[in-house]
Amino acid sequence: MHGRTSGKTLQGYDLIGDVHGCGATLAALLEKLGYHQRGGVYRHPRRKVIFLGDLVDRGPRIRLAVTIARRMVEEGEAYIVMGNHEYNALAYSHPAPGSAGQRWLREHSPRHNRVINETLEQYRDHPAEWEDVLAWFMRIPLCLELDGLRVVHACWDEALIRRFLARRPDACMDSEFLIESETAGSEAFEIMDRLTRGTNIPLPPGIEIHSGDGFTRRSFRTHFWAEAPKTWGDVVFQPDNLPGELESHPLSAEEKSRLSYYGPDEPPLFIGHYWCEGIPALPTGNIACLDYSAVKYGRLVAYRWSGETRLNADNFVWLRVPQEERAMPRPWEIDFE
Ligand SMILES: [Mn+2]
């Protein structure tokens, strides 16, 4: 792959998983990948970055993470797709229709407040910058296909993506789409939910998973690369085990009908979202998940892609996120002005 864009001969793309406010680690990972900051923007002479979404929430340096990514995107040094956390921020901050700013598209419930709390705290003294960041989030596409690769935050569902692109050819939401997407059962809801959150299967009544991120879940996350799955264990994709004997619980016909499927002959696909743990590994030869729980002192993971159709685990590049990310000194800190 040797496209020529913005004056550089492009050798490939470096895809970077969920950053979640680990801004200092992001800067260090970019340095490790051979990017250098000039004029406040990280650049590589022959490569570009693709961010998989979820820059915000949870971590200690959310503004730094957003600023680094946004400048790279606006300077043509990077692409990005929307994560469910950017989407959450947009719905949380958008007035409910007809409410004259009294109510919000996404209810400000304790659970929703908790998800976005760190982000709002870190932008509290920068309200104009936060408004500007939200406007930028609205311009982030939900999915991306270029030079033989595909990128989406959680799940590439070809049929839903075709329907979405028929409505929104630039792959970005507009205000009308955002409002519709908060109504369960609408087409916009189905598209946003599938692309940025993937498919969840509800657990039987009374059964809960107390997950490592402190949330209690009554459903589990599934993947979309099993050709003929029969049991819940064939599709579960999350670090938390299913309780008891539920791994062998059969998939119902209704559950099977809701699952997406991405076959082995499709173009290479990069996703984030799924909280993997341990040493980065490939689930299939054409899908890489790059979310390795950076914000839980896991790894911030990149994949160096140079045009190959069969992915190779040797192309993962990562940094452990240090416990002291919060107190990390400033060699990578960039000027916000
Ligand atoms: Mn995430």
Describe this entry's structure for a reader:
The protein is built from ten helices and 18 strands. With 337 residues, it is α/β, with parallel strands linked by helices. It has two domains: 4-198 and 267-327, Purple Acid Phosphatase, chain A, domain 2, CATH 3.60.21.10; 207-259, no CATH class. Strands 3, 6, 7, 16, 17 and 18 form a six-stranded mixed β-sheet that branches. The chain has a four-stranded mixed β-sheet with strand order 8-9-14-15, with no helix packed on it. A two-stranded antiparallel ribbon has the order 1-2. A hairpin with a 6-residue loop joins strand 16 and strand 17 (299-305). The protein is globular, with a radius of gyration of 19 Å. The model has no long low-confidence stretch (mean pLDDT 92). Manganese (II) ion binds next to loops.
Show the helix and strand layout.
Layout: E1 4-5, E2 8-9, E3 12-16, H1 23-32, E4 36-38, E5 41-43, E6 47-51, H2 62-74, E7 78-80, H3 84-93, H4 110-123, H5 127-138, E8 143-146, E9 149-152, H6 158-167, H7 175-181, H8 187-197, E10 200-202, E11 209-210, E12 216-217, E13 219-221, H9 232-235, H10 253-258, E14 269-271, E15 287-289, E16 291-292, E17 299-305, E18 316-320
Parallel strand pairs: 3-6, 6-7, 9-14, 14-15
Antiparallel strand pairs: 1-2, 3-17, 4-5, 8-9, 10-13, 11-12, 16-17, 17-18
Helix pairs in contact: 1-2, 6-8, 7-8
The structure holds manganese (II) ion (MN).
Manganese (II) ion is lined by residues 18, 20, 54, 83, 272-273, 291.
